[in-house]
Design goal:
mainly alpha; 95% helix
Length: 167
Amino acid sequence: MEQQSLLGTLGLDWKLFLAQLVNFGIVLFIFWKWVVKPLGATLIKRQERIEQGLKNADRMDDEKKKFDEWKQAEMKKVRTEADHVLRTTTDTANQIKQDTIVDAQKQAAKVTEQAKASMESEKSQMLKEAKQEIATLVVAATEKILRGKLDPKKDQELIAESVRNIK
């Protein structure tokens, strides 16, 4: 009875209190079973997804760094190869240029030699023709002189005429 008196002093009805306690227990059980547990499970799943996302982000950062390093190495390799190809091409072009210059100089020398030979040949031919013409003129002049050698005055006229024809 002391309990009753203690509860009674506080103004509580123990039957009502017991019924409220059972109702509170049922509500707490329902709240725990259908609200707290699913909410806790959802929060745990969300936390796991966030942690997995962070791990994936870290992994992606590592992969990105590895890819950037690989890309830099490949770019360096490609630049080196391009420089080598450029140098090779430049060397080949310079060699072709030098060969072309040497060939052009050889051809120019050959053309010059041919021109000199042609000029020498023409000069010889002209001298030969000039000698033949002079010889023909001398023969003609001699023939005229011999035909016209009757007097010294006539002789002088023939010489002057021959000299005019030569010029």
